[in-house]
Specification:
By secondary structure, this protein is mostly helical. It has one domain: Arc Repressor Mutant, subunit A (Orthogonal Bundle). 66% of the residues lie in helices and 8% in strands. It has a three-stranded antiparallel sheet. A hairpin with a 6-residue loop joins strand 2 and strand 3. Helix 1 packs across helix 5, helix 2 packs across helix 5 and helix 3 packs across helix 4. It is globular, with a radius of gyration of 18 Å.
């Protein structure tokens, strides 16, 4: 399979998207991690668990899908987090599924982490983007996610 090389503008746009994502992740983690000990991956998992009723999600694949991760990646992450007392995993005998729950320690840590995260997102991203730029980012993310999940282009 051969394809046309990316144009200079296309390369710049792609590299800019990567720099944007990497820079924001690094800046926000640079605030959250030193104060809480949570890695970026820890925060993502706990954030999803905290959004669920009783901070609990059943089914490894269901949680992995919400994170856009593979089940294998999530399983490894949960093992590390479990060893640090952040999550509990219970295997349901009847269904064979695993239920993941944020521990009370994780919930307490997340209260601090969420406040720091929100402040860092405002400082490093929201304060430097216009309302129009934010809408472009939102719309583009929706179109890419729809394409990824096979739901077509939401512009149609």
């Amino acid at each position: 399979m051969t394809s046309e090389p990316l144009s200079a503008r296309e390369r710049e746009a792609w590299r800019s998207a990567l720099v944007l994502a990497d820079s924001l992740r690094s800046l926000v983690s640079g605030v959250v991690t030193p104060a809480t000990g949570l890695s970026s991956a820890d925060y993502l998992v706990l954030n999803r668990l905290n959004d669920a009723p009783e901070s609990r999600v059943s089914g490894l694949k269901a949680l992995a899908a919400k994170l856009n991760w593979s089940a294998s990646r999530l399983s490894h992450q949960l093992k590390r987090m479990g060893a640090r007392g952040l999550v509990e995993r219970v295997y349901e005998e009847g269904t064979g599924q695993v239920t993941m729950t944020a521990t009370p320690m994780a919930e307490q840590t997340m209260r601090v982490a969420t406040a720091l995260h929100n402040e860092a997102v405002r400082r490093y991203f929201l304060s430097v983007a216009t309302d129009e730029e934010l809408q472009v980012v939102i719309d583009l993310a929706k179109r890419i996610q729809a394409q990824r999940t096979g739901q077509g282009d939401p512009r149609n």
